[in-house]
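Q: I'm teaching a short session on how sequence maps to structure, and I want students to see two examples side by side rather than one. Could you give me a first protein with its sequence written out and its structure tokens following it? Keep the formatting plain so it prints cleanly on a handout.
A: Of course. Example one:
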Amino acid sequence: MSKHTQTALSVNLNKVALVRNTRHLGIPSVTRAATLCLEAGAAGITVHPRPDERHIRAGDVHDLATLLKAWPDREFNIEGNPFHNLMNFVRQVRPHQVTFVPDSEGQFTSDHGWTFPQDAERLKPLIDEAKALGARVSLFMDPIPEAMAAARAVGADRVELYTETYASTYGTPQQADVLAAFKATAEAALAAGLGINAGHDLNRDNLHTFLTTVPGVQEVSIGHALIADALELGYTETIRAYNACMPQA
């Protein structure tokens, strides 16, 4: 497991796979991208394999699980809908962390969190199974303070705060109010005994402000912006730049 004392950076490699899938040449390599990110100091790797395999494919999940065995201090996070294809991967590769996300099969990108109490009954047996397989369970959640105790009650170890509303209001007059909601949600999560992750549209510009305002964030998962930066800066400089945005935990 990661021993980083600052907020951990988990790199989402979906967009690398998306580019690769436009041809049949096997490039860019997802495992090569993971290796370069890990060598540069990323604390972990995230993938979100969707049922249509439009980016990450089943083979990528297994290849990355094998690769991560050579990096015992780093983590493998698999995210997705547990009612679609996610649980098969959890059973097969036993990731360090599994993030349950309530997206539909053809959804363009994740855009909302779980709802309580509506989702509690059907989530609980799958949370229990994932934990029995040795995975930490994180639930993708909107910044709603009163939902944090319910997420803990259903068995979650962490929540991943869906940060799109923050990213879209960053630098606007609405930013302060939106950040206040995330801060209150994080405080409620900590009070409930939950760990805190965050992700969606975080980037080099908005990351530091989020992490210095919202308490207790243990991990951020970043894909689109990070891979876009890597196209210009390279993986090594990009990972260093993102790690430089991280305050000490």
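Q: Perfect. Now a second example for contrast.
A: Example two:
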Amino acid sequence: MLRVELRDRIAVLTLDRPERLNAVGSETVDLLAQALDDVRDDDDVRALVVAGAGRAFSAGADLGEIESFTSPGQFRAFVGRLTEAYALLEEFPKPSVAAVHGFAFGGGLELALACDLRVAERGAKLGLPEMKLGVLPGAGGTQRLPRLLPPAIARQMILTGEPIDAERAWRLGLVNELAEPGGALAAAEKLAGALTAGAPLAIAAGKRLIHHGPGMDLETAIAYERETVTVLFSTEDRAEGLRAFRERRPGEFRGA
């Protein structure tokens, strides 16, 4: 249900339920959390790509599993596990790129939103259709989407359940890069490859600043930034970066 492959310092995590359009169920969530735990301290992994097998990135949460629930408590536990796994991805110290093709709906789009960057093929659809089922996104969709899109557009998507296409998502800034049909994974791996060239400690620190800073007042956030970069100043990677700049060569960062 989740295939993990290591390619040139990139861990490619592929949702592998093509017969179910990569619907995300409890087993997939557990495998995702385990995969993140496995590669967290692997020095051979510098970035992640999250993709889907078959003709779509993901149709969303597994409705078959959800229909089997007999109480709100079961649904609450399921959504809790989903939310926790996506939070692990969002807060993961290594950068992540979603490779979206076909469509990313509901919990599938929420998975892509938890990634740092998104690549989507032209013609792909992105949406949160839960409203049409009488519910709402429950794994971060109502909170992450308005932070990545103009609020009015996010509100329309959430309250109508209607998707937008990849081209519009790119123009609005939800998608970082567009790929031609069939090219999302290659484009995502290329983008992730550029991320692997960065200093790991600085990337992890940058992710923390970006994630936590908006919840602080500006003065506190800038102080947090100042303390963070001061710590980075004493790292070997900072010294290597300066040497590489002077010698006009790419830095060889070791995460130390």
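Q: What should students look for in example two?
A: Point them to this: The chain has two domains: 2-196, 200-247. Also worth mentioning: The chain has a mean pLDDT of 96.
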